[in-house]
């Protein structure tokens, strides 16, 4: 028994050592980084990209460089709540005031409460909230959980396929290994037709994280309880808490988080000069230290 435990520990240490070596190799392959790219590419970040590409350094490098270009252009860290607040008026997507049992931030999505028609603004709103969920992760935690409530969802008000595909692409390509699990709670039968199309956009790793949950299914109930404290979980997801979205209160929280985000990215000290990619010139003045 002792030998078996010792052997398992050695295996784990060997894998960890290999992963550290891959991380060092990826870091070296990127070359000198500056500005926000340097701040973004922490060891934890590099490991997420490596994990997403099965620890293949070349594929991970390509993926990460595409993200750095996207972030340089899209500037997700510069989005502020007042720019997307109208998208959040119905509470169709918001960060919950509780974490799961692993300390992960939780995003609640209610697609039946869609209130706008602009795909670009909807994506910008979601990107803002993904960044906000990451901002509010406890130290040492890298992932978030999604709870999707289908109340009021129908084919007449469903998210367009184009929007769903764009959402999946951004989540998979630019936030790899940020999603721990996504619970689709009690989806209507008609959703199956929509899902048959959407699932083709998902890579195998993301697909395995999507869980269909039905309140009358014992295994589903136990699965939810393994991730969440029932006292915190809203009744809409089989818990005991009351789900309340107060747009004014949430807006106040987001305004506070915007200050925290600006400080993290040093945006409170200097205007953005538009440079953030791996190949760009360094930004002036001191930047926030990279967080691992």
UniProtKB/TrEMBL annotation:
Cited InterPro entries: CRAL-TRIO_dom, CRAL-TRIO_dom_sf, CRAL/TRIO_N_dom, CRAL/TRIO_N_dom_sf, PI_Transfer_CRAL-TRIO
Residues covered by the CRAL-TRIO domain: 81-245
Superkingdom, natural source: Eukaryota
PROSITE patterns: CRAL_TRIO
UniProt-listed Pfam families: CRAL_TRIO, CRAL_TRIO_N
SUPFAM superfamilies (alphabetical): CRAL/TRIO domain, CRAL/TRIO N-terminal domain
GO MF assignments: phosphatidylinositol transfer activity
Protein name: Random slug protein 5 isoform X1
């Amino acid at each position: 028994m002792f030998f078996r435990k010792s052997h398992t520990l050695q295996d784990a240490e060997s894998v960890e050592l290999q992963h550290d070596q891959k991380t060092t190799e990826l870091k070296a392959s990127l070359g000198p980084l500056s500005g926000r790219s340097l701040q973004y590419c922490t060891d934890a970040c590099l490991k997420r990209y490596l994990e997403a590409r099965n620890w293949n350094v070349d594929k991970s490098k390509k993926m990460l460089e595409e993200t750095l270009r996207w972030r340089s252009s899209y500037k997700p860290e510069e989005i502020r709540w007042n720019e997307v607040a109208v998208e959040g008026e119905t509470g169709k997507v918001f960060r919950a005031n509780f974490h799961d049992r692993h300390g992960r931030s939780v995003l609640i999505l209610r697609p039946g409460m869609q209130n706008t028609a602009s795909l670009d603004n909807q994506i910008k709103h979601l990107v803002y909230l993904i960044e906000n969920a990451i901002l509010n992760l406890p130290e040492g935690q890298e992932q978030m959980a999604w709870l999707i409530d289908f109340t009021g969802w129908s084919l007449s008000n469903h998210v367009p396929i184009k929007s769903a595909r764009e959402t999946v692409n951004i989540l998979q390509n630019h936030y790899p290994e940020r999603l721990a699990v996504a619970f689709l709670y009690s989806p209507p039968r008609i959703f199956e037709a929509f899902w048959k199309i959407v699932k083709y956009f998902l890579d195998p790793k993301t697909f395995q994280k999507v869980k269909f949950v039905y309140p009358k299914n014992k295994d589903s109930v136990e699965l939810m309880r393994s991730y969440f404290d029932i006292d915190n979980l809203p009744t809409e997801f089989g818990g005991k808490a009351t789900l309340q979205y107060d747009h004014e209160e949430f807006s106040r929280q987001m305004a506070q988080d915007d200050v925290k985000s600006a400080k993290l990215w040093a945006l409170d000290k200097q205007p953005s000069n538009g440079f953030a990619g791996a190949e760009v010139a360094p930004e002036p003045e001191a930047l926030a230290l990279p967080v691992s």
